[in-house]
Amino acid sequence: MKLEDFPEHIQPYLIPRVSAEVVYRCLGCNAQYGIDELLYTCPSCGSVLLLEDLTFDRLTQIAPELWHQILDYRRMLNLPALRGIYRYHEFIGPVIPLNAVVYLGEGHTPMVEANRHLQELTGVRFCFKNDGQNPSASFKDRGMASALSYINFLVQSAKLPEVLAVCASTGDTSASAALYAAYLQPQVKSAVLLPHGKVTPQQLSQPLGSGARVFEIPGVFDDSMKVVEALSERFAVALLNSKNAWRIWGQESYAYEIVQDFDYDMNHKVVVVPIGNAGNITAVLSGFLKFFNAGLIKCLPKIVGVQSTHANPVYRYYLEPDRKKRNFEPVTVRPSVAQAAMIGNPVSMPRVVELVEAYNDKAGRQSVFFAEVEEQDIMDWQLTANRNGHIACTQGGESLAGMVAAKKRGIISDDDLVILDATAHALKFAGFQDMYFEDRFAPEFEIVPRESLKNFPRLVRAQGVRAFPSPEKPLTGQAFDDFVQKTAEAIAEALNLKPLSRNG
For site-directed labelling of 361, which of 203, 206, 415, 441 has its Cα 20 to 30 A away? Predict the structure, then answer.
């Protein structure tokens, strides 16, 4: 739809302009730094940073009803830069010109309500927001679109020479970083560090296919992250983990899309997200807070962060009800099928602490909760969800298990509608499904397959068939007819099918 075809009162707002003053703000000493160079930690105290729009109040000068119209009408534009996460440009990228935006199809992923059977099974009305339908098949693309758009802007502005982007990953981050960096070659190249043997073959194939330099190192994700941090402190590289504050801004779009998809009504809504490096829950909290502070929503939804018992430092931190007595302690992770969440020392923990407090204060009551789930429940619920029409990854199974746990604790009421985060595509974790079906989990996973959830292909070689077709020797004539009829009868018997009635 062309700009002149929109209502006149909307036209001036549809194409966003660069109109903000943004700084890095340190969560440790509260120092502020300009954004002309890439920063990941405070040069003074070493704490993590958040991006802050010092001119945010300008957004409150637009009436909420007008904001709703602006965002809803933007859905109809065919401008690529505004078809993805930058539909919300004023909230997540106000300093980035539209000609620097990198759009590969990310954002606006589908929200699929669970069928009646699954809702009855859980006792909750809920849906999955399937971020596995992003370009690299995970939610990481939201943050990468933001981080790489800003890098692209710095390159275009001659503020950065050629860039080597680096990240540590449990799989999804490396796939996304390599994909978006490849789009900006030759100015941007990428290298990824992976914990050896801790990334699925499907995920490993992605950065390799995008041309990234891939390095596998001993240990777990936390070890890879320390190496990447050392690289970013000593060499001229662009760090693309969620320590990068631009990643957080891009991932806020997840919250904005939920709000818009529910016509800006967050009453009796609950959002459940798995916690890995804590960047995603940070972004979700920040996104809802921004829309609330700007008046686009009248209330804040409940947020439930979920962790496995095998990697649960955030859950353990919030077990202490008195915020003054809380003390964060990293944990040694154990093997988990929710591989992207297998992080014992989340980089974004300081952001979580600040934003949870701000969120609860704005809500006027506790609205952020944390749940812990067993590995067994993660796999059982993932498979159950996918048997009911979803394509949830293991992290999606973790969200579903967390929702069930939260319902039992009374966090979720009968009036609530729950949105679950399926962070990646199920095919990325197909190996865990195979291990479940074949009962091949090592003891440390603490998973015993339920027979009712196992599934296998069955080779049918019907009795009485004298010849079977092959690619080299196809059957013809009576031999082929005999094969078809007897094979069909064998399958019908296995399925307990009844013959068609020929009467009348």
Answer: 415
Asked if 202 and 289 sit in the same domain, the reply is no
Q: How far apart are CA 289 and CA 301, in angstroms?
A: 10
Residue 114 contacts residue 390 (beta carbons within 8 Å): yes
Within a domain: 495: yes
Q: How far apart are CA 49 and CA 260, in angstroms?
A: 28
The C-alpha atoms of residue 127 and residue 419 are separated, in whole angstroms, by 5
Nearest Cα to Cα of residue 119 among 369, 416, 421, 424: 416
The SS3 assignment for 209 reads helix
The domain total for the chain is 3
As a 3-state breakdown, the chain gives helix, strand, coil percent values, each rounded to 5, of 45, 15, 40
Amino acid 504: pLDDT: 53
Other CB atoms within 10 A of residue 296 CB = 24
Cβ(434)–Cβ(419) under 8 Å?
A: no
Tokens of 152: 């692209």
Angle at CA of residue 443, ends 441 and 447, nearest 5°: 55
Asked whether residue 304 falls in the same domain as residue 361, the answer is yes
**Per-residue tokens: 417:** 């509608």
The CATH number that applies at residue 259 is 3.40.50.1100
3-state secondary structure 247-280: HHHHHCHHHHHHHHHCCCCCCCEEEEEECCCCHH
Residue-wise pLDDT tens digits, 153-180: 999 998 887 889 999 887 889 999 999 9
Does residue 25 form part of some domain? no
Tell whether pTM > 0.90.
yes
Helices (H) and strands (E) in the chain, counts: 17, 13
Is 95 within 8 Å of 249 (Cβ atoms)?
Answer: no
What CA dihedral angle connects 166, 172, 176 and 179, to 10 degrees?
90
8 Å CB contact between 199 and 339: yes
